[in-house]
Amino acid sequence: MTIQETANFLKTHDQYLILTHVRPDGDTVGCAAALCLGLRNQGKTAHVLDNPQATSLYSNYLDGLLAPADYEPATVVSVDIAARGLFPDRAQKYLDRVDLAIDHHPSQEFFAKETCLDAGRAACGELIYDILTQLGPLTPAIATPLYVAISTDCGGFVYGNTSAGTHRVAAALMDTGIDAAALNKRHFRTKSAKRMRLEGMLLSQARLFDHDTVAVGVVTIAMMESLQATERDAEDISALLGQMEGVKTAVTIREEAPKQCKISLRTDPADLNASTVCALLGGGGHAAASGATVQADVEETIRLVMDAIHQVKAEQEG
User: E-strand spans in 210-283?
Assistant: First the structure.
């Protein structure tokens, strides 16, 4: 569906339930909050499905928006969800009931009845902005979570997915009167002491491969427990290793269980397509940033991801 078709869809339906993905980040939470508020401004009934995995860094944007336990939606919308495997436990019962998916991932599985997709956008928040401007003027209350959605998904406007259009949308949101400086400080210039210690542990144990162009770091269960760190302390830590000079591919492995690891891959897409690598491991995402979860211990996970990297590089060079 086009932006206009999506806006028309939202105008003609009601009783919305909005879904976010597992391990919710700023983009999915910000999109859900902004869309919910925008729909309510149109006189619609709209709620966001509670996602217990949301950390305190983002959960406050959903205050007053969560669906009551007995809420029965007529229209289910997912935001920033590319695949069925990204539905959290509480959203599983809606897998076959998604009426509209709004997304920007090229790995979109088209699980919904209707899909609004633009894989060229830096954040799903950019799409939500385009859609909501078709419904009416944006208030600061709507613009605040949208700014969070867009800014966090492009790393404070420094990732390679940032476009001139991204900046134009951010400027329009700032023009509504939001406190962008406070949002930037909260999300990009504030770290807990535990987070900084965790970064130190991650860097001190990082391994370099392929003539120091590939960095692999691991956050283990033991590391988290030793620091008494929370999920908020580990938020977006996958962006760290890519800051090392000379590194083109950064792999951050998060041990979630003794034989389960989550892989976050950040690459220079001109050198390696992250989505293609993660697809070999059952995941997906963007050309420069993708992820996957594998059922293996840490050492086996390192072997699997390096094998996938080498396979994709060989195919690209061949």
Answer: 214-219, 249-257, 260-267
- 3-state SS assignment for residue 290: strand
pLDDT tens sequence across 188-247 = 999 999 999 999 999 999 999 999 999 999 999 999 999 999 999 999 999 999 999 999
Residues 6+ apart with CB under 8 A from 150: 27, 30, 122, 123, 125, 126, 129, 166, 169, 170, 173
CB contact at 8 A, 128 and 31: yes
What backbone torsions phi and psi does residue 257 show, to the nearest 5 degrees?
-155, 165
Q: How far is CA 2 from CA 43, 70, 131, 285, in A?
A: 23, 33, 9, 21
Query: Quick one: how far is CA 314 from the chain centroid?
Result: 29
Query: Is residue 287 classed as helix, strand or coil in its secondary structure?
Result: coil
Distance of CA 168 to the CA centre of its chain: 21
Which neighbouring-strand residues pair with 19?
78
Phi, psi values for residue 14, rounded to 5° = -155, 180
